[in-house]
Design a protein that fits this description.
Elements (H helix, E strand, L loop, with lengths): L1 H8 L10 H9 L10 E8 L17 E8 L4 E7 L8 H7 L5 E7 L7 H4 L8 E5 H15 L4 H18 L4 H13 L2
Parallel strand pairs: 3-4, 4-5
Antiparallel strand pairs: 1-2, 2-3
Helix pairs in contact: 2-5, 5-6, 6-7
Length: 189
């Protein structure tokens, strides 16, 4: 999932839509701290070895950020994509500590399951990090991307198929879309 999202977010992605999808996403999650003229998107950004400090959990560092978006001034957002993946010890804390003064962490889940203190220690949602979901934020963003790609049928339909898949796994798919997805899968098996 991170690879697909990262490709759409990347202004230099194969979609040839420039920064349009990225801007739609940043608008949706209300990010106004990034200079949108020069942004780099990286997947699995290595931020050093994992160091867990049991005595001072809020000083723990390191790991790999699923989707990392950074402007040319060092401002960044880090997206932890928790789709069928277990929580890691102090993961939100470790990402929160990376580029701390200029970084915002987003915790992305299928339908809003908050991270536990195992991952956040004493950090608070909406204050220290943000929670976003596939069933609301990502699906709404993809619908906007699909409309933006109206003149590129292959891209538009790829986004549509991925949106249908997300609706299926988040449990919000309409019956007519379930049949459409089933038919697509059968015809491409």
């Amino acid at each position: 999932h991170s690879a697909f999202l990262g490709e759409l977010l990347n202004p230099r992605g194969s979609h040839m839509m420039g920064n349009r999808f990225l801007h739609l996403f940043l608008d949706l999650i209300k990010v106004n701290t990034l200079d949108r003229t020069a942004i780099n998107v990286r997947l699995e950004k290595n931020i050093g070895p994992v160091i867990i400090n049991e005595n001072q959990p809020l000083s723990s560092t390191g790991g790999r950020i699923d989707i990392y978006i950074e402007d040319n001034k060092g401002n960044s957002i880090s997206i932890e994509n928790k789709i069928n993946a277990p929580e890691q010890k102090l993961q939100v804390v470790r990402y929160w500590n990376y580029n701390r003064e200029k970084n915002r962490v987003y915790y992305l889940t299928l339908n809003g399951k908050s991270p536990s203190p195992y991952s956040t220690s004493t950090l608070e949602a909406d204050e220290d990090y943000e929670e976003i979901t596939y069933n609301h934020h990502i699906i709404n963003w993809l619908v906007k991307c699909q409309k933006e790609a109206f003149e590129k049928p292959i891209l538009r339909e790829s986004i549509k198929q991925y949106t249908l898949l997300l609706k299926k796994i988040t449990g919000i798919m309409e019956d007519r879309h379930k049949q459409e997805l089933f038919n697509i899968i059968l015809s491409n098996y």
